[in-house]
Protein: Ribosome maturation factor RimM
Amino acid sequence: MQKEDCYYLGKITKLHGFKGNLILHLDTDEPELYENMESVFVETNGMLVPFFFEFIQPHSRGKMLVKFEDVSPEEAEKLINKELYLPLETLPELDGNDFYYHEIIGFTLYDQSNTEIGLIKNVNDNSAQALFEIDLNGKEILIPIVEDWILEVDRENKAILVEIPEGLIDLN
Structure:
């Protein structure tokens, strides 16, 4: 499995007890969707290695208590701070105006008057407000991703129609 075929799920944060149990922090709004996972990919030495669960159960807000099959307590300790991934095909399909950030890379962004703004190069979600990174004729502009501004997501034509406040693009 290649990393580009997967999405980031979270990371292993610490040991729990002395039997090799681990705490996983899941980077999701709905950790309960992952309570029945059978396995996860752990990034180890630049490769994604599958690990199967002996058990998995909710622990606290956004966290899971797990034990991997055939992993000793000593081996479990070496997994702390490793990142977790799952294959993209395991994501539930979204419809309507909901989208995954990775899904819209390469879409064209249009404003409310159907004027092309530019191509979505990336989504920057490293700040409090996620941003579309747009290529506007070779110039990068940033547009906040605001749910109320998204009028339509057209997956077939790889386009997103947004309502942008007047003057926002000029600020870039």
About this structure: Residues 7 and 91 are 9 Å apart (CA to CA). The chain has two domains: 3-90, 101-171. The helical segments are 73-77, 168-171. The two ends are 39 Å apart (CA to CA).
